[in-house]
Each structure stands twice: as structure tokens, then as C-alpha cells.
User: Fold this.
Amino acid sequence: MSDKLDINELAKQTATPVRTIRYWVAEGVLPPPAGRGPAAAYGPGHRDRVTLIRRLQDAHLPLAAIRKQLAALDDPGVTATLAAPPAVAEPTTAFDYVRQVLAKTAQQPKPLDYPPPPLSPDDTLAAAGRNPTRSTWERIQLHPDIELQVRRPLARADQRRLEALLAAAQGLFSDTH
Assistant:
């Protein structure tokens, strides 16, 4: 693989639209390429930075925070950051907390101490690998003032995540009564 990439090859290797790469360069999140126009060349450092930007966006960091973080890193620093396991940040909102709970339980499922809800006809169809003809919403009360709405049917993996979320919610709210 050549060290020099044109914008189309960079986009292909990072699964990032060309337009997005150009936007990041214009916003100062990504350094400009060497050269201009058709002769513009991107290198491995650009590829690593695009990969890191995508990872940080997946963690829901705003572009300004990503720009600031990348400005403090040279190319070896970006490579080292990509190689390190992602840090687990303390949740600052309920949404962040739920995202962390779902991420943890997807990795380490825990047994439930209550039975899962019975399967609906749509759930049975989904479990059999057939597309259900309709979906329904289920309201699950977590606390007298808090409820969760779930569209049924759920895929098997999503059902496991939901069960883990309900178990975590049960632990959170059981000591508030």
C-alpha cells in the first residue's frame, strides 16, 4: 500500500464520505493534504486521524471537543490513542448512563431474577426468522414516575439488552421505595 492516498482512496479505506473529509479539513479537525486539487495527497496520519475522529463521534463527542483533542496529538500520538482501549467516561446524563449499561451488559450478560415477558405473536414470527407484519409498543414502568417504551418485536440480542437494562433499573429503583 502506498503512503500517498487521494481523497477517494482515503474515503474508501475509512468508510467516510469524501464530502465529510473535506468538511473536516475546512473546519480544522483534519489537517489539509499535501498539494491542491487533483494532486492533493493524504497519508497514513490522515487515515489514522479520520479513524479516530469516527471513534470519537461514535462516543458522541462534539466536533469542537474532537478538534481540541486532535490538536494536542501528533501522528504517533494518534496511532497510540487508536491502539489503546477506549476509556470509559463517567456518565454525565441519564442517556449516557443507559448507553454504558447497555454496552456493559452486551459484553457480560447477567441472569435475571424475574421471568421475561411472554412472547407476542409478532415475537414468535421474528424468532422464527420471518418478518412480522406489524409492530407494537410496550410500556414498561420502571418507577412510578418513569417508564420505558419498547417497540416489539425485538431482535434476540436487543431483547437480551432490554432484559439487562430492566435488571439494572430494578437495582437502581428498588432502594428508592
User: Anything to note?
Assistant: The radius of gyration is 22 Å. The first helix runs from residue 7 to 14. The CA atoms of residues 136 and 152 lie 5 Å apart. Residues 94-174 form one domain.
